[in-house]
Design goal:
The structure is a single chain. The protein is α+β, with helices and mostly antiparallel strands. It has one domain: Aspartate Aminotransferase, domain 1, CATH 3.90.1150.30. Helix content is 46%, strand content 24%. It contains five helices and six strands. The N and C termini lie far apart (55 Å). 28% of the residues are buried. The C terminus is likely disordered.
């Protein structure tokens, strides 16, 4: 896998866009980051999985995936060694990260009804 291949797969997901996060290319859906490239170096990417999904990838693909150190890793941030991952496995992990970002964004976004109610109370 190359960085270009990672980018191609990430951007093929519905409504995914490329932006930047801490000086690295990132991939977002609904303004939520689901993956990045170039951290900790150019030979890696990162996917934001659930901790349970992360454990599965670490167990099933130990040469391709590793947890990010610290709290981010405990929450599911998972490094991908580009040279060790195939298209299908990367595509699956990116899809899971994309689904997580979409679900998280939907839960955090206030509904129009709530926004109008709050605005009306402030008047």
């Amino acid at each position: 896998m190359t960085a270009a291949g990672f980018r191609r797969i990430a951007l093929a997901l519905d409504a995914a866009v490329e932006s930047a996060h801490h000086g690295h290319p990132d991939f977002r859906v609904g303004n939520r980051v689901f993956a990045t490239l170039g951290y900790p170096d150019r030979s890696h990417g990162m996917v934001s999985l659930t901790p349970e999904q992360q454990r599965t990838y670490l167990r099933e693909h130990p040469h391709a995936f590793m947890a990010v150190k610290g709290k981010w890793g405990e929450q599911g941030a998972t490094l991908v060694r580009l040279s060790a991952v195939d298209d299908e496995t990367l595509g699956e992990s990116l899809t899971l990260a994309w689904q997580k970002a979409r679900a998280t964004g939907a839960r955090r976004r206030p509904s129009t009804r709530t926004t109008k109610t709050i605005s009306a109370k402030k008047r």
